[in-house]
Amino acid sequence: MNRFGIKHIAQLIIFVALQILLMDNLVLFSTGFCFVYIAFLLFLPIEMNRILLLFLGFTAGFAVDVFYDTMGIHAAATVLLAYLRPLVLNLLTPRDGYDTNDSVNLHVMGWRWFLAYALILILTHHAAVFFLETISLQEAWYTGIKTLFSAFFTGVVMIILQLLFFSVKRANR
Amino acid sequence: MRNLFAFIYRFRAFLVFVLLESLCVYLIVRYNTYQGAAFFNSASRYIGQVLEFKSDITDYFRLTSVNSTLASENAELRKELLQFKLAAQADSASRLDTAIYAPSDTARVAPYLLHAGRVIHNSVRRTNNYMTLSIGSADGVQPGMGVIASNGAVGRVKTVSEHYATVTSLLHSQMLMSAKIKKDNTFGTIKWQGGDYRTALLDYVPLHIKPVKGDTIVTSGFNTVFPEGIMIGTISGVAKEQDKSFYTIKVKLAVDFAQLSYVYVVENTRKAERDTLELNAGIQTDE
């Protein structure tokens, strides 16, 4: 439990730092935003205390909010994501349930499972962020396009992270 | 009672979720307004240090453009200074007897002080954009002061800490700026609509005026935030719409917000005096 804590707190700091220092400057065509810090929540172990997950989500969102001057918006979206994550995991349970050593890993769970899991959650999070930002439903189509394009962008970055740092060897262990 | 606890325990995840979401909504409503000051924001000390560290690194990659901006600003200022010097040489009024020479009215002595600050964090592509400056209350910056760059108006200070300040950029969905068309002094309001960070809208220009493409838009000086006549941009398109009694005017902003590196915070030394006077007179000033 203790090792779990340190490892994941380190991941939290790394992902939030990545978001603030690097991804903040990386906006494609003024519509594609990359909120890569939610990868931290998505890559957590499958079996997790739901309350702890909610608080971790709030912490990550709040940290990003402080740097982005968008008090509460990212926090609200990440808490929503943290709440939905166990439900989506339940929905996507393989036929014979999750194995004990299953983790959110592209090589273990396969492309179809990972894409479905990641895209549902990323889309929810991004839609929440962008619609909370505008509040009104004016220009809803523009916000919608922004959401879709940004979700695609974040998804691609997340797959790259998976391919780089989640090796096949570890998966076969 | 036991049933109640059992119920709470069963739905604990959902209850925590609702609790956290309502906390977030409270934060959004309380701190996300245009004027609302937040305790946690990019002006706070540690956040400011991280942003300054980041800007220390990234600034190296655009030293050339920063230098050329500063050099052209210097050239502009030298040109103006030269004109004043020439005018002073040609002007014999100051040598006249003081009894005849009436000094101009005190309002013409500019009551504005400028504080230069480095932009350490900036955004242009969000719906509500802010920037962070590396000067704060220790350098005389207070919330509500205007911020200008060498080529035009930029925004308004939202919060300050000792060494940092957060600025609401003109590129903020709720930021309004009192402006006027320079050639005929028609005033209107500048508002950014989102999307392209180089264009904004000028509202409330009545239909009997004839604005044309290329007209200069400057600040009006009707409030205490900006001095009069600070450049905002030029008109890039005028449209008359069927059901509106005002023009829809597109303005190309003079400041390239993506390239900002150094800005000036405008301190109006007579702000308090003017604000209390207008308040006592019962005038509601917007902005």
Automatic annotation (TrEMBL), chain A:
<protein>
    <recommendedName>
        <fullName>Rod shape-determining protein MreD</fullName>
    </recommendedName>
</protein>
<feature type="transmembrane region" description="Helical">
    <location>
        <begin position="75"/>
        <end position="93"/>
    </location>
</feature>
<keyword id="KW-1133">Transmembrane helix</keyword>
<keyword id="KW-0472">Membrane</keyword>
<feature type="transmembrane region" description="Helical">
    <location>
        <begin position="147"/>
        <end position="168"/>
    </location>
</feature>
<feature type="transmembrane region" description="Helical">
    <location>
        <begin position="50"/>
        <end position="68"/>
    </location>
</feature>
<feature type="transmembrane region" description="Helical">
    <location>
        <begin position="12"/>
        <end position="44"/>
    </location>
</feature>
<feature type="transmembrane region" description="Helical">
    <location>
        <begin position="113"/>
        <end position="135"/>
    </location>
</feature>
<keyword id="KW-0812">Transmembrane</keyword>
TrEMBL record, chain B:
<dbReference type="Pfam" id="PF04085">
    <property type="entry name" value="MreC"/>
</dbReference>
<feature type="domain" description="Rod shape-determining protein MreC beta-barrel core">
    <location>
        <begin position="119"/>
        <end position="267"/>
    </location>
</feature>
<dbReference type="InterPro" id="IPR055342">
    <property type="entry name" value="MreC_beta-barrel_core"/>
</dbReference>
<keyword id="KW-0133">Cell shape</keyword>
<keyword id="KW-0812">Transmembrane</keyword>
<comment type="similarity">
    <text>Belongs to the MreC family.</text>
</comment>
<keyword id="KW-1133">Transmembrane helix</keyword>
<keyword id="KW-0472">Membrane</keyword>
<dbReference type="InterPro" id="IPR042177">
    <property type="entry name" value="Cell/Rod_1"/>
</dbReference>
<dbReference type="InterPro" id="IPR007221">
    <property type="entry name" value="MreC"/>
</dbReference>
<protein>
    <recommendedName>
        <fullName>Cell shape-determining protein MreC</fullName>
    </recommendedName>
</protein>
<feature type="transmembrane region" description="Helical">
    <location>
        <begin position="7"/>
        <end position="29"/>
    </location>
</feature>
<dbReference type="InterPro" id="IPR042175">
    <property type="entry name" value="Cell/Rod_MreC_2"/>
</dbReference>
